[in-house]
Amino acid sequence: MRTTTLGRDGPVVGRLGLGGMGLSYRYAPALRDKGKAVSLVQQAVDLGVNLVETAGAYAAGDNERLIGEAIRGRRDEVVLCTGGGLLGDPDGVLRPAGGPRALRAAVDESLRRLHVDHIDLYLLRRVDPGVPLEESWGALAEQVWAGKIRMLGLPVVTVQEARAAEAVHEAAAMAAEVSLFTRCGLDDVVPYAVERRIALLAGAPLGRGLLAGALSRSDDLPVDDWRRTQPRFAPRAIRHNFALTQAVAHVAARHGVTPAQVALAWLLRLGEHVVPLPGTRAPDHLAENLGGDRVRLTEQDLTDLEFLPYPAGAPEV
Asked: What angle do CA 257, 261, 264 make, to 5 degrees?
C-alpha cells in the first residue's frame, strides 16, 4: 500500500485507513457481532492497515473498547486515532461538547477505554458553537504537552478557523466527510491542507455504502439501520442516487474492478495527503476496499466522474 505522513513529521500511515464507527454504532444493530468485529480489525492490521479510527461518541464508548481489545498486544503496529468534542444523548443524537473540562475528561476516558497510555491522533470532532475554537483547541494542546496525545486533528472548519487554531497548536490532520457524493470544501480546504502538509482524513468515502452500488432501495437496508433516517436513503432519493452510481460502475467495468474501488481511487487521486477511512464489517469488503489503492484512473475516467451529478437528499448528519 502507498503511504503518506500525518502532518509535517508525523508517523507514516497507509493511504487507506479503517473507519471503526460501523463496527458497533448506527449501522444495522441487530447484525453486530463483537467477536467478528475484533477479528476484522486484526485482519486489517494483518493486511497492512495501520491507521485505525474510532471516537468516544461512537456507541457511548463501546467502539473504543472494541478497538482497544482488537489492538491489544499490537499497539506498536497501529497509529491510533480517536476524538472528542461530541456527546451522545440517550436518543442517539450527537451534540457538541467542546468546553475544556469536557475535552480533558474525554481524553482520559478514551485512554481508559482503549487501554493505552497515549493517543497518536486526537480529533476535535466538531466545533462547539458555544465555545471559541481556540479555547477548545488550546485544551487539547495541553493534553499534547502532558504526553497523553501526540498529534491533533481539526474537524470541518473554514480556512480562517484553521489558521486561528494553528496559531495555538499545529494540526496534523483535518477530518471531513469527503466522497464523490460529498465534495463540500474541496476548493478551499484541500489547498490549505496541501500548503500546511496536513493530512485530510476522508470519512464516509463510499457515501455510507451508496457508492458501492449495491443499495437501490430503502428496503436494501436492515429495518434498524440508522441510514433509513437520512435524506439520501429516503425511497425516492435512494433510487435517484443508485442511478448516479451507474456512472461509477461504468468506470469500474473499464478496469475490471468494483465501484467501491473506483470511488476510493478517485479520493486517492486528490493528493498524497488524502487518507480515506472506509469502514466495513465484512472481511471480503475489507479486502475489496484495500484494492482501491491499486486502481489508476485515466483522464477519461476522471472526466466522467467529475461531472457526476450531485445526489438527491441533504448530506448525512
From this structure: 155
Q: Mind listing the pLDDT tens digit for each residue in 133-174? A: 999 999 999 999 999 999 999 998 989 999 999 999 999 999
Q: Can 25 be counted among the known catalytic residues? A: no
Residue 101: other Cβ atoms inside 10 A:
9
C-alpha cell at 157: 472548519
CA–CA separation, 283 vs 36, rounded Å?
A: 9
Rounded to two decimals, what is the model's pTM? Answer: 0.94
Contact 128, 96 (CB under 8 A): yes
Between helix 235-255 and helix 259-268 the angle, nearest 10°, is 80
In the set 27, 58, 122, 192, the catalytic residue is 58
> Pairing between strand 119-124 and 94-96?
unpaired
Give the Cα-Cα-Cα angle 244, 279, 112 (nearest 5 degrees). 150
